């Protein structure tokens, strides 16, 4: 009886933490700790049941709570486990006085899981994270990429370019084929009338000089007794074309000056002709007989017959002294004497409108318009 009374007032039911602290000192393996904890809990429950049957004491719920190994909801339903709370508190507050060498592993594992779960971006129902969705939305705002050009579109574009090219070439050829009239004079210190030559805008300068040479032979221009024979010995390279005060090289064509609207001194255009193609009213071969073989001579005769009168051509009313045909040998002998001293060879890069001409002595030339 005395033993029962003594056991009634003596605190025989120790807490789970105290029993674990007593029985788990020195353990190094987690399996040993779990086994020892299971034994302690089983012993504590057995003592609680015996105390309840004897009616001597009422078991404490905080001591009989049995938290599972993974900290499941069975222990959390009765409130947070005292063992887990105390272990975490002791680990955080007094890391230097640890009784269990492996108690920190579970906490670190739980903390790592919590940190990884917190750092991982939230996912939607379909498994796509909000970060990926944000990236997708940002890329979607850029706009749709242009569609790839098909072969049919490339062929159509190439056909359009070719049609434009052919149209430009046809217009260019029509302008080059347009006839003009160029009145000129022969110059050897004095102006000798040479007449008017029919040319095309696409002809080169040397072609004009060759026609002027034939005109000089027909007219017998010169002081020699047999001027026609003398002109026959003159070549195109021996002649020069001087337009105003500019010497035009042989390799240029009239079309170049027409299209580029080249100007000479005082801003006057060198060849003031139109760059537009003439309007054709009828086919070029309409006058030829049909059903018979047409020879080249017949075509040339028909074309000559259809040529407009030279007086109706562009440039017919120009001043003949504006275009001079000069013997190069005479120019080499007199290029230091006026007016040959004012002549200069054409340079496509020079701006003649702002040029100030001076003679060899540095004196400025004054020209009248």
From TrEMBL:
Pfam assignment, any one: XAP5
Where is there biased composition of kind Low complexity?
67-82
Cellular component (GO) terms are: nucleus
Q: Which UniProt keywords apply?
A: Coiled coil
Disordered as annotated region, ranges: 1-134
Domain of life where this protein originates: Eukaryota
Q: Where is the composition biased (Polar residues)?
A: 1-14, 54-66
**InterPro entries the UniProt entry points to:** FAM50A/XAP5_C, XAP5
Q: Where is the composition biased (Basic and acidic residues)?
A: 38-50, 122-133
Q: Where is the FAM50A/XAP5 C-terminal domain?
A: 178-356
Q: Which PANTHER family match?
A: PROTEIN FAM50A, XAP-5 PROTEIN-RELATED
Q: What is this protein called?
A: FAM50A/XAP5 C-terminal domain-containing protein
* Organism of provenance: Trichoderma arundinaceum
What are the top taxonomic ranks of the organism?
Answer: Eukaryota, Fungi, Dikarya, Ascomycota, Pezizomycotina
